[in-house]
Amino acid sequence: MLRFTKDHEWIRLDGDVATVGITDHAQEALGDVVFVDLPEAGREVTEGEAVAVVESVKAASDVYAPVAGRVLEANAKLAEEPALVNSAATTDGWFFKIAGVNAASVEALMDEAAYAAFLETI
């Protein structure tokens, strides 16, 4: 099950490991993604911290950690194929995984219906 932030990140929890990426809405707003700057494995991150950068032909945007934890891995595929963010935003286009995640922090984020309602307000 995906959860969402107001900054347009999605998060999927598997045990205490969370996979993080940007939403379809975010990738559509950015346009063609041309570069992604990803975090190093082992980095401790706090909720709301800018952890990665996504650059498109239109703009560069920060990608924030939806929850606190330790970066387990970054998606190396994005270095060679940043367009995966556009073609598979919520699957193969993930940015990084965070370990040691508190499940309650993820549950507190918006579900799909709440995110859809949020999008209607912006």
Written account of the structure:
It is a single chain. By secondary structure, this protein is α+β, with helices and mostly antiparallel strands. It has one domain (2-119): OB fold (Dihydrolipoamide Acetyltransferase, E2P), CATH 2.40.50.100. The protein has five helices and nine strands, in the order βββαβββββααβαα. It has helices at 24-30, 77-80, 84-87, 103-107, 112-119; strands at residues 2-4, 9-14, 17-22, 33-37, 44-45, 50-56, 60-64, 69-74, 96-99. The protein has a six-stranded antiparallel beta sheet. Strand 1 and strand 2 (9-14) form a beta hairpin. The longest helix has 8 residues, at 112-119. The mean pLDDT is 97.
List SSEs in N-to-C order. EEEHEEEEEHHEHH
**Tertiary shape:** globular
Radius of gyration: 13 Å
Task: Report the CATH superfamily.
Answer: RNA polymerase II/Efflux pump adaptor protein, barrel-sandwich hybrid domain
